Amino acid sequence: MLKKLTKEQLHKKFKQLFNNIIGVNEQQQAAMAMKAYQVKINDEMYYVGRAQVSDIDEILDIERAVYDGATPWNKQAFTSELHRKHDRLYLVIRKDDQLIAFIGSSYSRGTQDMHITNVAVLPVWQRRGIGSFLLNVIIDKARQIHATQVSLEVRVSNTKAQRVYSDLGFESLGVSAGYYFGDHEDALKMALKLSEDKK
């Protein structure tokens, strides 16, 4: 005899089925869902939260400031990324209601890789530990969902960023020739291996 399910039970079963199809478990959902909070970084208070579609114009402004007027990612790309809440995590940092930094990441359950897609801090706010803070948040999230590594690409000319990544434990995996759109600069592939004892 079939048991009649309530509307709530049907919704829960559908959600479980959907998550199984796209490869998301409850632990991953919990890690990717993040409430906004205040944080002190080097004696300054900031507001950290999950990026919203309404933040995109300010995110593009940061890209222009960091990349000499260019926007490596456009509004459509960011909109698409921000709608994928089950396997994407984009964070922003605000100071006095100004968006001053952001980071983006994507998680592949198949490879267990948390990939940092982009990270940028307004030039006047650089060298204050903000970028390292954001990277560490993503690394912590990767550990929570039992990722085996955090990976990224960085321009071969961006030695300053490479030093930051190296200080956090990232190691070089080689070079991707002509990786960047536009100027076709090579990218250095880097990864931080997450060992079991750190989870």
Automatic annotation (TrEMBL):
<feature type="domain" description="N-acetyltransferase">
    <location>
        <begin position="46"/>
        <end position="195"/>
    </location>
</feature>
<dbReference type="InterPro" id="IPR000182">
    <property type="entry name" value="GNAT_dom"/>
</dbReference>
<dbReference type="InterPro" id="IPR016181">
    <property type="entry name" value="Acyl_CoA_acyltransferase"/>
</dbReference>
<dbReference type="InterPro" id="IPR006464">
    <property type="entry name" value="AcTrfase_RimI/Ard1"/>
</dbReference>
<dbReference type="InterPro" id="IPR050832">
    <property type="entry name" value="Bact_Acetyltransf"/>
</dbReference>
<keyword id="KW-0808">Transferase</keyword>
<protein>
    <recommendedName>
        <fullName>N-acetyltransferase domain-containing protein</fullName>
    </recommendedName>
</protein>
<dbReference type="Pfam" id="PF00583">
    <property type="entry name" value="Acetyltransf_1"/>
</dbReference>
<keyword id="KW-0012">Acyltransferase</keyword>
